[in-house]
Amino acid sequence: MNPHPLYKLGGSMKSAARMALMATMVFSGAAWGQDAIGYVKTVAGDATVTDGGKAIKAVAGTPVKLNSVMKTGAKGTMGVTFKDNSVMSFGPDTEVTVDEYLYAPAKGDLKFGASMSKGALNVVSGAIAKLKPEAVSLKTPTGTIGVRGTNFAVKIEPQ
Amino acid sequence: MTLMRNLLMGVMVVPLVVGCATPPPPPAPSPKLVAYAVLLDNADGSAGAITFTDANGTVAVNRSKNAVNLDGATAPYTVDDNTLQKDFGAIIAARPQAPASFLLYFESGGTQLTAESQALIAKIVADAAKRPAADISVIGHTDTEGDANEKLGLQRAQAVSGLIAGAGLKAVETTVTSHGERDLLVKTPDNTAEPENRRVEVTVR
Q1: Residue A118: pLDDT above 70?
Q2: pLDDT value of position A1
Q3: What ipTM was reported for this prediction?
Q4: Is A142's CB within 8 Å of B170's CB?
Q5: Which of A36, A80, A151 comes nearest B42 by C-beta?
Q6: For chain A, what percent of residues have pLDDT higher than 90?
Q7: In sequence order, what are the residues at sequence separation of 6 or more whose Cβ sits closer than 8 angstroms to the Cβ of residue A107?
Q8: Does residue A49 share a domain with residue A20?
Q9: What are the residue ranges spanned by the domains of chain B?
Q10: What is the domain range of residue A124?
Q11: Same domain, A44 and A16
Q12: Do A120 and A144 share a domain, yes or no?
């Protein structure tokens, strides 16, 4: 919808400059969108995503970034799709943090580390797990879940 | 340390001194954690695998509806459908739609889409319109003919991005990048024309 500002410049540059610009564009492709690594797609009830440590009410289109904390209230649910096509959905009273995220398959930079403190979570893993399974992990209060390209669910409920 | 030792001593000594005084309360049990991870079917009906690793070691789960407890490694066990429905039914219903990928192919050497692929433009726009807050990636690829393929891949991706924008695409973000000839669909030697490799991959999330 909104082309990258650099994208608009493309046609008017001289050849050498254009090559340099292209390198920048390919690089900035990953960073464009202020480092969004995914977007909220579904929300019901109360849900928040932090941005720079500040909790923001989640709606469809809210960006998720590295170190974002995704949280749902007592009756909330939320769904997030990441740029590597991983899909997460959250049940009520759930808290998950994105600790590490690298998705630059052309350079071989692949990493997806998240941690979950409580609640219920469904994960359908995406391209990172497919390309480099050992690069995907979900920390829980008692141990670490490794993901080998798959659909799984986790429940953590203190009683 | 000294304080701790004194406190412990106090606890041990007090009953001896006062004889039948109330014994110290037992330590509060740590809250019981109801926690497990369960493997579910993939969209194609297959099951992948997950592992759980804690101080006791690693447990692998590789059958659908098999679970591992997270509070002390246990052998995998089967979870019944009622429990899955109770614990995860609402979450699985809230899961966003799976991303969709479209491959568009090009005539040799330029940014002209094949006739078949031109018809995909409208399909991409329609798919994005059905999704809440769609975000799009457009990745250009080339075959190994010619020597400016990073640039050509980007030009192809830009051409497709322009076409879907012109056809009314609504998206929160569109990323446009090139993999040049570094990610061949069909492996070929250098300087080989290969229609399958002259493509742009559009992913709608």
Answers
A1: yes
A2: 42
A3: 0.80
A4: no
A5: A151
A6: 70
A7: none
A8: no
A9: 36-93, 100-204
A10: 36-156
A11: no
A12: yes
Report the top-level CATH class of B100-204: alpha beta
Tell me what pLDDT residue B4 has.
47
Size of interface A-B (CB pairs under 8 A): 209
Q: Which residues of B touch A106 (CB under 8 A)?
A: 177, 179, 182-183
Q: Does one domain contain both A100 and A26?
A: no
Q: For chain A, what is the domain count?
A: 2
Which candidate, A143, A94, A102, A93, places its Cα nearest to that of A123? A94
Q: Does the CB of A73 have a partner CB in chain B at under 8 Å?
A: no
Average pLDDT taken over every residue of chain B = 87
**Shortest CA gap B141–chain A (Å):** 12
B154 contacts in A (CB within 8 Å)? 22, 25-26
Give the closest of B42, B52, B175 to A143, CB-based. B52
Nearest CA in chain B to A147: B50
B174 vs A153: CB contact, 8 Å cut-off?
no
Pair (A123, A85) in one structural domain: yes
Do residues A64 and A76 both lie within one domain? yes
What pLDDT, in 10s, does the model give residues B92-147? Answer: 989 999 999 999 999 988 999 999 999 999 999 999 999 999 999 999 999 999 98
Q: Can you tell me the mean pLDDT for B161-178? A: 96
Mean pLDDT of B155-161: 97
Phi and psi dihedrals of B162, rounded to 5?
Answer: -65, -40
Residue B89 three-state SS? helix
pLDDT tens digits, one per residue of A143-156 = 999 998 789 999 99
- Quick one: pLDDT band at residue A35, thresholds 50, 70, 90? confident
Same domain membership, residue A142 and residue A92:
yes
